[in-house]
User: Which sequence fits this backbone?
DNA sequence: TAAAGGCGTTAACAAAAGATAATTAATAAA
DNA sequence: TTTATTAATTATCTTTTGTTAACGCCTTTA
């Protein structure tokens, strides 16, 4: 018998969820594992699994006209990865989702999840929680672009995402901040010389 | 008797909503009207009404350390305005929400809405719809900051928001794009000379 | 009607960022 | 361990943006 209370603590998922509902969810979910550099979701994919990252780190990136990779988002443990193009936009994925570290996940098919939610109404609270969390994160990011300078944006990013600089390459962080790697390097130097 | 089908068409609100559920919602909602320059929500406010803009235009702005107004978002008719700081962050509003035009709204207290949703489960679909739409919009905005240059961002903005340049001052648009009014003026000139 | 204020444009200069390439440092592969 | 690759830093130059201020235009107010 799994200790669900412990599970909740460890995986921080079902915040507003009863143990019973969490059990329903976990019963339907499968375990998965991705090696470093392995893709969870490919560009053009119609895979509609929703992943919950137990451990590891996922990079969402796009390849532009010039063939360059542009990283949009870094998603660490205890967060949800999904093919948002499919779920929100009803189109194939414009992005790649790649494991940057060995990544352990729960995953569940979105249609199955929909069905599960309709049969267990209390799960709706959890869906709401996940959606609100995504919304909050996204809105805070918009705010950081409107209200902050690139330097301030960098400082806030590393503050909100402790240890990230030791886990991923700077060029990915630069992309996420909407600047070039060269510019990020200069910003870091500027900050260093201030202190 | 109100023709709800017509209402749905006009107000585009209850996309996934049955007429009955829409009726429940509208019955609980009050009508409101704001004159130009009037505030829907003040900074520091704990007002937790959710507004649906029937007609008009609302500006969400912030006053920074230097006392300057910085516009974060422009919200036109058929969209939802809410005190997100209160609802998502459990804190008083950091922003002002000001009518830029005479603005007609439906509004409903968020707690009342919560209660309504719990008693009419089908309304949950509508809440999901609103949340997903906000998320989509916010994510697209983040993408525009990461993937596009200021000039491209401006072009996409006016494309996605037809007629906006005739409705609001350029300085508000500049803020929303994360640039200065002077820079926006230069971008417009650059675009003009290209054609 | 005149005065005042606000806004968009333009100018001038400083600061920052982009682009490209060279160098150094770190990492991965042989 | 050595070699090959890849990433980060630095340098140089160009372009863009920020800042401040001046100017003309328009709207509002007296």
Assistant:
């Amino acid at each position: 018998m799994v200790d669900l209370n412990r599970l909740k603590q460890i995986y921080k998922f079902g915040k507003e969820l009863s143990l019973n509902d969490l059990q329903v969810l976990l019963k339907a979910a499968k375990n998965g594992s991705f090696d470093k550099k392995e893709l969870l979701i490919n560009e053009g994919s119609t895979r509609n699994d929703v992943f919950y990252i137990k451990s590891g780190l996922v990079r969402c990136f796009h390849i532009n006209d010039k063939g360059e990779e542009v990283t949009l988002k870094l998603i660490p443990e205890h967060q949800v990865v999904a093919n948002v193009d499919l779920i929100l936009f009803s189109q194939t994925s414009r992005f790649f989702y790649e494991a940057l570290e060995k990544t352990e996940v729960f995953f569940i098919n979105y249609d199955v999840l929909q069905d599960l939610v309709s049969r267990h109404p209390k799960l709706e609270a959890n869906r709401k929680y996940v959606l609100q969390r995504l919304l909050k994160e996204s809105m805070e990011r918009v705010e950081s672009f409107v209200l902050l300078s690139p330097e301030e944006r960098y400082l806030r990013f590393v503050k909100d995402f402790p240890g990230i600089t030791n886990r991923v390459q700077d060029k990915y962080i630069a992309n996420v901040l909407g600047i070039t790697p060269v510019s990020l390097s200069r910003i870091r130097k500027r900050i260093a010389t201030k202190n």
